[in-house]
Design goal:
By secondary structure, this protein is mainly alpha-helical. It has one domain. It contains 7 helices and 3 strands; from the N terminus they run H-H-H-H-H-H-H-E-E-E. It has a 3-stranded mixed sheet with strand order 2-1-3. A hairpin with a 2-residue loop joins strand 1 and strand 2. Helix 3 packs antiparallel against helix 5, helix 4 packs across helix 5 and helix 6 runs antiparallel to helix 7. The radius of gyration is 18 Å and the shape is elongated.
């Protein structure tokens, strides 16, 4: 049973701002080191991209790294967090299909590809949830997603 003091604690807007900010950080933080690796180790990563038949492999690796870093910063800092979440979700869906094509994998790598595919789709789902909340307005007021530096770019009326 939840104590009433616990319920009133989380009803405070300031406390929920903290929870929402921590949630955005937890969802997006992994994209920063991954994106930096894509930018700084593009030569090493282009071989795998070539193996997966990615067009312009080195440039694609670098571009995906830039999208990851900028998208993560957007979500974490709340600078058009809705746009950052939507772009990261789209990137994850494309990467799941292109880079983790378990349906075409051999038996030795099929399980790892299924895990990578599922992980990417799961994270895309979380990012789409952030997008949906950040872009929703109720009676002209945006829904709170915690502390942000800008308002949302999109406004989807509820």
């Amino acid at each position: 049973m939840i104590a009433l003091s616990t319920i009133s604690y989380f009803e405070s807007e300031t406390n929920m701002d903290i929870v929402l900010l921590v949630a955005r950080i937890l969802v997006a933080a992994m994209f920063i080191p991954s994106g930096i690796n894509h930018l700084t180790k593009a030569d090493a990563m282009k071989g795998y991209a070539q193996f997966k038949k990615v067009p312009a492999p080195k440039l694609s690796v670098q571009l995906s790294g830039l999208i990851m870093v900028l998208g993560a910063a957007s979500v974490i800092l709340g600078i058009y967090a809705d746009l950052g979440a939507l772009v990261l979700a789209a990137l994850l869906i494309v990467m799941a299909i292109k880079m983790h094509d378990f349906w075409a994998a051999d038996d030795a790598s099929k399980q790892n590809e299924i895990i990578g595919f599922s992980k990417n789709l799961s994270m895309a789902g979380g990012l789409l949830f952030i997008f949906a909340i950040a872009a929703t307005t109720v009676d002209g007021t945006t829904i709170n997603i915690g502390w942000t530096l800008t308002d949302s770019l999109f406004s989807i009326a509820n």
